[in-house]
Amino acid sequence: MTDRFPVVVLLSGRGSNMRVIADQALRGALPVEIRAVISDKPDAGGLAIARELGIVTETLAPKSFPNREAFDAALAERVDSYAPKLVILAGYMRILSSAFVRRFLGRLINIHPSLLPNYPGLHTHRRVLEGGDTRHGATVHFVTEELDAGPAILQGRVAVLAGDTEATLSARVQRAEHIIYPRSVAWLAENRVVMRNGQTWLDGKPTSDAPIIDVE
To answer: Which parts of the chain are beta strand (E)?
Structure first.
């Protein structure tokens, strides 16, 4: 698999997006090789999934370090040891330090459960319902030093239905995530997408707005 685009995944939880990406990679539908899955939580469900799929896993405990900067420096060294061309945040719940982000700038991506720039931060489904929005979704974006503010790559949009709860809306958004995250990773692996001068470029052209996929 040495000809495949090397990636490292960081996660803190169940790893559903990691699993979708890994499944597609293992069956040859996605031209990437996940060289490692690294977590800040030893009991993260995504670690068990990765091991079942034969992927190398590591855990790095924040409490073993005096501060966030020291932890992130150690994490960066572990990530770099796998020589990835892309670092994928898949439910990684720690805010990364500026030094970490700068080190991997342009090859560090995240997925956020809203149509950014709307609703950065936490509790997006609740906030969408409270705001009376008719559309919600998820955004894959490059990570920059400002939280949830990096240039977008691709968005998946869903309808907010009458009677939706946080749980039903979250499930629908997750289906969108499972479509747009692998596709974004493929675009990066195929060099169709790059970040240049703080902006996303797709197929050699700067994008003012990320493409949107409507998901039922």
So the answer is: 5-11, 32-39, 57-59, 86-89, 108-112, 135-142, 152-159, 193-196, 199-202, 205-206, 212-214
